[in-house]
Amino acid sequence: MISVNDFKTGLTVEVEGDIFTVLDFQHVKPGKGAAFVRSKLKNLRNGNTVERTFRAGETIGRAIIENRGVQYLYASGAEHVFMDNETYDQFELTAKQLEWELNFLRENMTVNIVSYQGEILGINLPTSVELKVTETEPGVKGNTAQGATKAATLETGHTVHVPLFINEGDVLLIDTREGKYISRA
């Protein structure tokens, strides 16, 4: 058990049978009445974000999340097959479980699987990945003042805004948290 007074960003907790990670929290001490903790929690099973208010000092269950290294093998219809790097066991996750992650996932890529008491909740990508540009318009020099961008489609099908000097075939460094261009690799 853990007190809500000890909340930290990234902490995983169990509330009413669901597993949540703490995205944001705020300790509030009103002039009148009891103190409380206002928090924003992300459900790790379905991805929904909820706002919850807890009384100060209230205790909730701590969820111990396990991370293991796995390799993404291939897509088979709506299923995506992964292999555990230690045991070589293969398992599948649905496209719905990997909705955001599929924008950055390449075959043979190593990622971390997130599980709780044997239940697979999803995967954690590295903070940045290298992806190849498959389609973009040629950059046109002109009367651009500063920061001109164009759309580029990556090998995974994800579209990002990139500077005009990026061409097809370039390998880019992409931030997986926001899906944005960082630099050329």
UniProtKB/TrEMBL annotation:
For molecular function, the Gene Ontology terms on record are: translation elongation factor activity
- To which pathway does this protein belong? Protein biosynthesis; polypeptide chain elongation
PROSITE patterns per the UniProt record, alphabetical: EFP
Name-wise, this protein is Elongation factor P
Location of the Translation elongation factor P/YeiP central domain: 67-121
Q: Which domain of life is it from?
A: Bacteria
Which SMART domains does its entry note?
A: EFP (SM01185), Elong-fact-P_C (SM00841)
Domain Elongation factor P C-terminal, first and last residues per copy = 129-184
Read off the CDD domains from this record: S1_EF-P_repeat_1, S1_EF-P_repeat_2
Similarity section = Belongs to the elongation factor P family.
Please give the InterPro entries that the UniProt record associates with this protein.
Elong-fact-P_C (IPR015365), NA-bd_OB-fold (IPR012340), Rib_uL2_dom2 (IPR014722), Transl_elong_fac_P/YeiP (IPR020599), Transl_elong_KOW-like (IPR013185), Transl_elong_P/YeiP_cen (IPR001059), Transl_elong_P/YeiP_CS (IPR013852), Transl_elongation_fac_P (IPR011768)
